[in-house]
Amino acid sequence: MTVHPAITPENGRIADSATVNGLLRCWLRETGQPVPACGALALPLPASASTLHAEVLYRSPTGHHRFGEVRLGNGTPLGAVTVASLLALESGAGRGTSPQATTDLVGRVADSATRAARHLQHRGDNADEPPEATPFLRAEQALVLGHPLHPDPKSRQGLSESEARRFSPELRGSFPLHWFAADRSVVSREGGAALESLADLAPEVPDGTVAVPAHPWQAREVRSRPGVRRLLDSGRLHDLGEWGPPWWPTASIRTLYRPDAPVMLKFSLGLPITNSKRENLRKELARGAEIDRLLDAGLAAEFAAAHPRFGVVRDPAWLAVDVDGAVESGLELVIRENPFGTDDRVSCVAGLVAERPDRGAPALTDLITKLAHRYGTDSDDIAARWCARYFDEVLAPVLWLYREYGLGLEAHQQNTLVTLDAEGWPCGGWYRDNQGYYISETRVPALERFVPGVGRVGDNRVADAVIDERLGYYIGVNNLLGLVGAFGSQELADERGLLRMLRERLRGYSDLPLAGTLAESSTLRCKANMLTRLDGLDELVGPLETQSVYVDIANPFAEGGTTA
Questions:
Q1: What is the CATH number of the domain that holds 447?
Q2: Are residues 17 and 146 in the same domain?
Q3: 304 neighbors 276 (Cβ within 8 angstroms)
Q4: 91 membership: H or E segment, kind and range
Q5: What is the pLDDT of residues 244-271, one digit of tens each?
Q6: Nearest CA-CA partner of 26 in 69, 63, 71
Q7: What ranges make up the beta strands (E) of 107-203?
Q8: Alpha carbon distances (Å) from 175 to 163, 244, 245, 277, 358
Q9: Whole-prediction pTM value?
Q10: What secondary structure does DSSP assign to 334-365, as a single string?
Q11: Residues 365 and 251 both lie in one domain
Q12: Cα angle value 333/339/342 (rounded, 5°)
């Protein structure tokens, strides 16, 4: 039996404070309540006849504020669970929110805070990097606290402590794959070389069967599904158990990586992680393979001619077990290319900017501080130059692709990778995620000259207004404003100067309505993570238009960073 070290009071306090700060940021963003430049913040909550008070430690134009301890008016200090209860009660007032939904949110917040404390404890007790940790893997494992504007970024209900130890990137977990042998008659697949790479990694299986890997958590869960159970009972599916060398979970938990493997494997997990169960849908499998064909048919060459240092991490192949009476069996696998060498300085942006109380400073702070020392200037100057290069190398290609071909990439910070040169400057980038490709309905002909009928099999032809709303959030709010907020909240730069510089760069794409909105509109559409969670929405289920709650927020780009 695995013995878990006790969480120290200090790690518990840090995790609770980070959770409270995330809750307050969500509340303030989603309600539009102003934040004073300094001093005390008071949040009246009529539904509970109470008022929350907190000292403003840092006021961020982008919403990445920092707060001290939260108290009631009588001075009683409040922890994350109580703050979550009061804010959930207030948010649900007038929305018809059920008590069960409030309880669910509070339970997830408690689970998230406890897991964050466990991550901090583990990192403190195991400070040394494992020998297999490449720059890519280190960034994938860096999100010990998670999304700074989410109420429960580390909630994983259904994952036991012993399972978390194996399966969590924050705990540097690793494990062998679980394998099945499936009769060829119940296997669907697509892809050439990537499928061959998977076969090279698999154990020997009986003639007439196909080796099908699974995440160990997934393997246990799918055995209880009736369709899979029938295949096992009939002998068309054989459970081979765990086999082979260890794989490491990346930031998404379900995508696994091995430094020496030519592919990564994205599994289907029926496990609620933040806002969604992370299960692969058949249309998403087809979508990734179709985008691979689209790139091979000529789009990649045209993209590279315009932006040679930006690439798409491809999902060229997939493998799935079929069951009667269901579209998905739970044994759906995306086979993703692994284009990164062990020394490539490529990082998930979310991991690069993540708060790191376990190591004293985020990787971003270390990087900018070293550059300032090298060039004999201050961090404000370096931050402006770094963000300018980041826009040109990482965000400009995404805007170009959408402007020229109507192909939108859901480039939030976890889906965006930045390549750094030897000094630490951005020198390239990557996009990943087969779920996040949007094809403009009005500009389909631009892509159909490469692949006729593109977007039908993947069910990702989308109205421009919807794409603009989604990409406005993912590219503008989550990625760019999140980057600016990280620089500001880590005391590396004045956010207002970065906002002005980025606004000018967005104006360089003013013929693209999305960029024009980001640069000039007085408000932006923004995903409301607390309301989405409170309403119990799964962001991978149902029509794109209704998968999340969106609200209007003041646009920091257009305001020049003068107000929050």
A1: 1.10.510.40
A2: yes
A3: no
A4: helix 80-92
A5: 999 999 999 999 999 999 999 999 998 8
A6: 63
A7: 175-183, 187-190
A8: 10, 9, 7, 21, 24
A9: 0.94
A10: EEEE----TT--EEEHHHHH---TTTSS-HHH
A11: no
A12: 115
